[in-house]
Predict the structure.
Amino acid sequence: MLEDILKQVQKGTLSIMEAKDQLATFENLGFAKVDHHRKKRQGFPEVVYGEGKTAEQIISITTALRARNNQVMVTRISEEKAAVVQQACPEFTYNEVARILYWKAEKNPKVNTQGYIAVVAAGTSDLRVAEEAAVTAEIMGSTVHRIYDVGVAGIHRLLSHAEEIQKATVSVVVAGMEGALPSVVGGLVSHPVIAVPTSVGYGANFNGLSALLTMLNSCASGISVVNIDNGFGGGYNAVLIHQLAQKGERNEDTLL
Amino acid sequence: MLEDILKQVQKGTLSIMEAKDQLATFENLGFAKVDHHRKKRQGFPEVVYGEGKTAEQIISITTALRARNNQVMVTRISEEKAAVVQQACPEFTYNEVARILYWKAEKNPKVNTQGYIAVVAAGTSDLRVAEEAAVTAEIMGSTVHRIYDVGVAGIHRLLSHAEEIQKATVSVVVAGMEGALPSVVGGLVSHPVIAVPTSVGYGANFNGLSALLTMLNSCASGISVVNIDNGFGGGYNAVLIHQLAQKGERNEDTLL
Amino acid sequence: MLEDILKQVQKGTLSIMEAKDQLATFENLGFAKVDHHRKKRQGFPEVVYGEGKTAEQIISITTALRARNNQVMVTRISEEKAAVVQQACPEFTYNEVARILYWKAEKNPKVNTQGYIAVVAAGTSDLRVAEEAAVTAEIMGSTVHRIYDVGVAGIHRLLSHAEEIQKATVSVVVAGMEGALPSVVGGLVSHPVIAVPTSVGYGANFNGLSALLTMLNSCASGISVVNIDNGFGGGYNAVLIHQLAQKGERNEDTLL
Amino acid sequence: MLEDILKQVQKGTLSIMEAKDQLATFENLGFAKVDHHRKKRQGFPEVVYGEGKTAEQIISITTALRARNNQVMVTRISEEKAAVVQQACPEFTYNEVARILYWKAEKNPKVNTQGYIAVVAAGTSDLRVAEEAAVTAEIMGSTVHRIYDVGVAGIHRLLSHAEEIQKATVSVVVAGMEGALPSVVGGLVSHPVIAVPTSVGYGANFNGLSALLTMLNSCASGISVVNIDNGFGGGYNAVLIHQLAQKGERNEDTLL
Amino acid sequence: MLEDILKQVQKGTLSIMEAKDQLATFENLGFAKVDHHRKKRQGFPEVVYGEGKTAEQIISITTALRARNNQVMVTRISEEKAAVVQQACPEFTYNEVARILYWKAEKNPKVNTQGYIAVVAAGTSDLRVAEEAAVTAEIMGSTVHRIYDVGVAGIHRLLSHAEEIQKATVSVVVAGMEGALPSVVGGLVSHPVIAVPTSVGYGANFNGLSALLTMLNSCASGISVVNIDNGFGGGYNAVLIHQLAQKGERNEDTLL
Amino acid sequence: MLEDILKQVQKGTLSIMEAKDQLATFENLGFAKVDHHRKKRQGFPEVVYGEGKTAEQIISITTALRARNNQVMVTRISEEKAAVVQQACPEFTYNEVARILYWKAEKNPKVNTQGYIAVVAAGTSDLRVAEEAAVTAEIMGSTVHRIYDVGVAGIHRLLSHAEEIQKATVSVVVAGMEGALPSVVGGLVSHPVIAVPTSVGYGANFNGLSALLTMLNSCASGISVVNIDNGFGGGYNAVLIHQLAQKGERNEDTLL
Amino acid sequence: MLEDILKQVQKGTLSIMEAKDQLATFENLGFAKVDHHRKKRQGFPEVVYGEGKTAEQIISITTALRARNNQVMVTRISEEKAAVVQQACPEFTYNEVARILYWKAEKNPKVNTQGYIAVVAAGTSDLRVAEEAAVTAEIMGSTVHRIYDVGVAGIHRLLSHAEEIQKATVSVVVAGMEGALPSVVGGLVSHPVIAVPTSVGYGANFNGLSALLTMLNSCASGISVVNIDNGFGGGYNAVLIHQLAQKGERNEDTLL
Amino acid sequence: MLEDILKQVQKGTLSIMEAKDQLATFENLGFAKVDHHRKKRQGFPEVVYGEGKTAEQIISITTALRARNNQVMVTRISEEKAAVVQQACPEFTYNEVARILYWKAEKNPKVNTQGYIAVVAAGTSDLRVAEEAAVTAEIMGSTVHRIYDVGVAGIHRLLSHAEEIQKATVSVVVAGMEGALPSVVGGLVSHPVIAVPTSVGYGANFNGLSALLTMLNSCASGISVVNIDNGFGGGYNAVLIHQLAQKGERNEDTLL
């Protein structure tokens, strides 16, 4: 594109003033291009963080995004707020456990056709965060296996699912309280583990600090951590990795 | 004893002044009696915390304690300091891994003849603390089974020792870094677990805070926690419980 | 059981496919067995943490648990939620101070016939947590002596109960604010002390952190600590120890 | 393998006693198998954490590991300690910036032939941690592009390397002080970013806490975080992802 | 003024008693003078912190302040409370995004006629704090350029405004979550940057602590920080600097 | 003094210029007067904080102070540094446990002739801080009763000294680890208690934070707290109170 | 009293059984005596902490206390709760700013006839805590001078009250936000200063932690600190000191 | 410059390939230009953070910087390291209190000819940080007035310098321990105050956290804060402001 502009300047079909304008645009597009590529290749939706935004703000943002995207996704949006948005935007679907409101341009085919993401959760109280991860990954086109209620205090429950977890391409492991689950999972698998601490617990759990520190200090290799209760982040990271693992995906010419 | 004093006052064989003196003593003995009973029944040694004391101070304290005890034990004492103390007190034995210097009046028979304490440790770096627990328990008369290097990141190592841990009367579980081991052990056993966090680790381990919080927040029941690196406390608590579990021990007349 | 399977394979009465299935089951039962043994020997109820669960969820969980247990216990359940559950499950009893809802198959005989657990509490504001400990222990079959309102700022109140506490098999000591009570009790008794910090207090108490740190740093030996406000954990640990102390309980053949 | 054992029992070529022994082994191998697969497929070395271990301990551990591995790697080992180990194990190579001592059975061919890992570092003081990540990745068979000294306070330095970073398969971004670099990189790329906070800084950096929190709170998607100064963890995670991205790697039959 | 008093004493037109009174007053005025000068020279309004004050208290304070000031400004006042105050004081204007209620004696001419303050904000959630800064600065007489929604995760958005920010006299940079924006801005400009962390975020953001630490640890020079969510402080500091930069302002005789 | 100046101006014996100078001085003296009164009335020494100062700096400061004081006191000074200072200032005395170097113009008579300060310490490791308090109080003219090694874990030791502590005018209570001692003492006495937390302990003691929080949260009334390890502050506060309690001391005319 | 009992035993007018009973009582009374003395000498009311107690509980406690005390005081009680209590106990007075409900047997004469306590507060938002201190002190019989709204950011306001503060017997200094006021007051006076941090502020004030740390680290001598928002503790400590300062109060025979 | 390139393309004197190269350079220069302008206009030296760098590294960096700058400055460099550097670079000057090593191309004329920066410090222990600020400012061309040892505990010392501070263009206020000085100074002046917390203190000062929080929470307006011990940052910010205040400095055409 830069070359085109220069050629036109050379040919005289573009004035210097116009060229300067276009180069300014180009510079910005240079970075916007990244976003463009991302969406095209990965089918990634535009994501709106719903907390602290009014239904009206969300309506106007999502309407704008719909105009130039195939998918739009709003996270951390309450049932009430979602209902208001849906009145204005009836084509949006709401998942009440994951608290995600989303829309896809058409019934997208499954993007990631090989393998699956294992979303593993310690307790039933971690469900919301785990579902935020799982639904995020599904909207983004991945197959998800849910393995829930397998906290380390009943290690046999986890072990009876060991093979299913081991065969996943990548795992998202969600745990509150002592947050020990990612360490055990990390020792069982040979793929990357995204650990998501939750604020579930009381007392010296300090709103998830306990689980967060546990996960950061894991003696198992291959674990990385996202913010407390950040199910979306866990799911998003897993999809990035899942997509890289698609066969033939990494042709240099199609990349980026 | 109170009755004796009063009877002598009644009989006139004790002046009021003398009675007052003896009652004052009695009051204090009332509490000292506890210590006396403890030692007699449990064979508990007197314990000196060695850190921050000079070899000279330790020599004078242990000499005094030896005069009225069957056992004396110094914890957190370095090899160098122990060597100085041993020159003055050659009858003391030093355990360099546990950093414990101790003496027993005679070759005590094993006090706790039934069952054993399992001392379970996550990593080789937790060895010092684990040994402090184990040696403390042994000096106090318990049998100890050491199950080391069974961190949760390689859960199969732990599971291959599950039966040995399950058969113990009580477990002391020592772990640094993420400190998840007690949660897993707690889920495998039906006896009390004393969890000992260690300061082993780096970064967001914050000198053992990570492991401490993990253990306090354990979702497994039956776990209680002592201070960071407090192997002695772990061993001591375990022996208290182990002794309670000795058959026929709880005759009301001999208790306390 | 493993032997049985192998024998049937040997005899040809079990196909290899079936044997593989059964061995997979066996592996899991190997750990489930632990839970089974626990319940049988200790009469331990299944415990549901009620906070963050809806009445509906609790009804479905407790109904399921009742089908295969002699006791079911729900902790941290509000009066309102308990009332809803009781409409569906009228055989459940609610203790409003301890916030525990529970059911026992029949009027269980007292399991632990010797000795008692002392539940010691510093202030009247610590009552809820202390009662959670006491009621937990009672449901699990232990005799409990309550010694309340004996905070260290009026040491004579505590001392006038010293003998009652000393004669207990194990103590649960509950305190908020400065949390100093376990240290003083720990110095008076020769049995294990389970310390329960509460979030009672204000300002630099930091929601129980102050009491928690105090207890972890206690200079008295024989103290271990559970999470802030974890009365259930305190009671549960005490019962584990109390049961170990029952005379003749530790016949190797009946253990586990 | 389970099937083999059962078949032999069926055929009578294996006694029930021997079968039980082998199944016990099998159970453990069930998990050990994971490690075996991992090494074979990924060429992952066995890793020893060198800090807190004596040269003697390291020599005995690495000697044992060499006997059954193609690669052995010791992290966090000082130059002095490494020199002692090298006297006993002259076939080991030491990288003094990364503080890694390692050995490979033969000159391994590059395992990951497509793409590369970008190791991006903010300041020259973050070099040690960045090199730990880079050298780890190289030993594990990945190509690494180092993009150093591109802290956010001079954003143009980073931008002039934008394309090189964008073309990587995965990035490891290392930063101390305010730790803002991963957020900016995360906004430029569409691949996963592993963020490594370092303890570089002073004052309110609180030994890396500042950078850690920054990275966990990043508003850019696709970022996950490892422990403070954990360059090894950053490199290891990146290689896991890099290997998943190898073309044709995910044939179900060869996986795990 | 001191000289006047002394002269009158010398002349006998002032009694020693009266002089003592006046000197006492003078001493206090010595400091009050500062406030007086400030208002006169800088047109600084008196500022009332509205949080935790009732509408009645605010009415009485603002009425008193209006009597002896040209401007009065109330920060952190809710829409409801402001409405009540406005009923009593209809000449006050309320800005609902900035939550500022203010009054100026007359339509003040723009005080700072040269240059402008750039108020730069990372996300839309930081708007309230950014507006508090911007409106504060405008009320105090500065021109403000708002550059919003330019968080570092989309660095090109920020860069497309680089020139506008660089040409400002001083910048106020507002950011929550990871708080990295001031570091990037600080590297782009050569003027002072006032960084304002916000409490926007969740989990390990710890109510703004994360952004605060990031900003304090910035590797860019020329950045100083105010309290979390302190938009007023950010705006106020910027105006102080903006005024210093007015040409010819610093005549010694008019200063202070 | 102000009146004098004004009278001289009135009389013409002082020029306005000279009066202005003297008034400037007066203003400062107005506050310096406080210090002057304090020293005269209370015999308070000038205090130098020795930590972080070189022997040379201390020599020059103490020499200057000696010229205009009856007493000089240097706290937190090591034995080595004190020896260097004493070579230059042989009239100074060094207390090596309290790490205080001091000098008094003449053998001061005991200033506070009634009552005494009880310095109460929990463990032998708290000795240094306790002695800093005790020696400070003695240098300042108070009688001190030392009651050491009376930690709450052996409550009878404390109780056997209860009367001695109760009869004191004020207590300084020094404790590390869990820091519970002030609460118990506070419950026994009816006079003010100055609590001094020490950094003695390990693990979750966090350099004295544990003891500090305990003391701030004490449920006993009448306790106030100084900084961690601040024995000097404890002693100084106690002397201030002790002096107020001296009979007839509070004649309005001599006060201040 | 001990002597009396012994004499009666000697005389035979008291049986040994009765003597044992009385001695048991005596032991407890030995400590209760303290409370008795305190109330008699100092006119100290019994104090009930109202927070977390129901109106019913407070009614029953205060009724019981009224039966054996001349004064009863309830702190931290809301206006609503106080109204309920007053319906049952109409003789109680409620102070709504200090949130204290109290009763005195008769119109007590001022107990402390000499001097006064200065209660100094930084901002109007600190009023509640300051009033809690002032009203506590007044109920306990001290004269209080209130010096409010003298925060350090307008140092001349404080200085214009310097003399009034300096003439007090003891000061209670209340401050939130940066909490710097006690340091400045401490440098102006020669009497003890009780510092009370408040939770007033926002952002990095962390609920009073900021002010608390400031006060503990004060470079002024003679300052001790109570818990955050603990106005009662500040007032109580001040009265203890004020009473000690009463002329002639410290006759050995009347003390304690 | 962009126009030049385009014109040459238009004229055909520049090939498209060359133009692309130059535009790539231009893009980077776009940002580098900032640094260039900064140095030219403000006389700002290049600054090297010396901590954690070897003398050799510093020599090579400073040599490179000297080649293209008029000034070079190394902060946080020890006396020993500086001596080594000076052997290689004898034209550098070392200030041992500020620990700054610097070089200026020629004897630069004072850049900022009007007004001065007041560097105000609380205690003698804060000297190092204060000098780092002062020397930084002087090297950068500002006049500095040092006002040291004016901590708030002796408020008259500060007040006797009030006028000198008030007349400054901007103040840098350095304080450790409770860090209250900026609040008091901020209330006295009408110019911007840069607050620098120091780590001076002990116990609950937590390495400067106490002073940092105090300053962030200051109730005085016009205060902004830099990192703990960051004297350089304080001085640098002050110079930025000082230069803005130079008369006639802000001609639009010369700016940037």
User: Anything to note?
Assistant: The radius of gyration of chain F is 21 Å.
